[in-house]
Design brief:
alpha/beta; Rossmann fold; nine-stranded mixed β-sheet; three-stranded antiparallel β-sheet; 5 helices; binds 5-O-phosphono-beta-D-ribofuranosylamine
Length: 227
């Protein structure tokens, strides 16, 4: 997937909010832990703090309501993203559903991080829903994006225990640094050209992955061990 044009793999990031996942990516690049170049940060919220994390030349934002319809906004977003010539497009807290045309255009190189152990808790309020269900474990997933919300093939997951007395906020706060590590490790596989999607399945090093990779405590991704 990585282009053979020389230079570092190019990564476009879509974000709507504070951008802590984006910052984890930027920090990993700066530390030499991730061989990639962020080609732009793209937002549906011109006031998003995420945008401030990169120089102005790398920022693109627009208000969806300034466009006649969803397709028109998506087309403008897609054109801006494409113009940055990304090898991979990563949704890091991008809170707007991407239309079919956008997903098709970036098919196979479009990843999202979602704060639940997919397929559990697609959509919003994942931490509260995990607590309400009495789950012993919670986590985050990185998956390929398909038109259906949070439904694409899951590449990797990190699990944390739910502790007695957890509230959605404490659970979210404990998960966030692990989510960041998951994102960096997974993007590391993607930008190294080791990850692909084919027929709704994840392929790692050319082999089909039958269950998501699991992040270990050292921050490495390993095949899930089933006990
Ligand atoms: C993350 O928990 C992500 O999984 C979810 O929204 C949150 C975004 O956080 N989709 P940030 O903007 O990266 O700080």
């Amino acid at each position: 997937m990585t282009r053979a044009t020389g230079g570092k793999p190019r990564l476009a990031v879509l974000a709507s909010g504070r951008g802590s996942n984006l910052q984890a990516v930027l920090d990993a690049i700066a530390a030499g832990h991730l061989q990639a170049e962020v080609t732009g940060v793209f937002s549906d919220r011109p006031g998003a703090p995420a945008l401030e994390r990169v120089p102005p030349t790398l920022r693109w934002s627009a208000r969806p309501r300034a466009y006649p319809d969803r397709a028109a906004f998506d087309a403008a977003l897609a054109a801006a993203v494409e113009a940055s010539r990304p090898d991979w497009v990563f949704c890091a807290g991008y809170m707007r559903i991407l239309g079919d045309a956008f997903v098709r255009q970036f098919d196979g190189r479009l990843l999202n991080v979602h704060p639940s152990l997919l397929p559990r808790y697609k959509g919003l309020h994942t931490h509260a829903r995990a607590l309400e269900a009495g789950d012993a474990e919670h986590g985050a997933s990185v998956h390929f994006v398909v038109p259906e919300l949070d439904a694409g093939a899951v590449v990797s997951q990190v699990r944390i225990p739910v502790l007695p007395g957890d509230a959605p906020e404490t659970l979210a706060a404990r998960l966030l640094p692990r989510e960041h590590a998951l994102v960096v490790a997974t993007l590391g596989l993607a930008t190294a050209g080791r990850l692909a999607e084919q027929g709704g399945q994840v392929r790692l090093d050319g082999q089909t992955l039958f269950s998501p990779l699991a992040l270990d405590s050292a921050g490495s991704l390993r095949p899930e061990s089933r006990s």
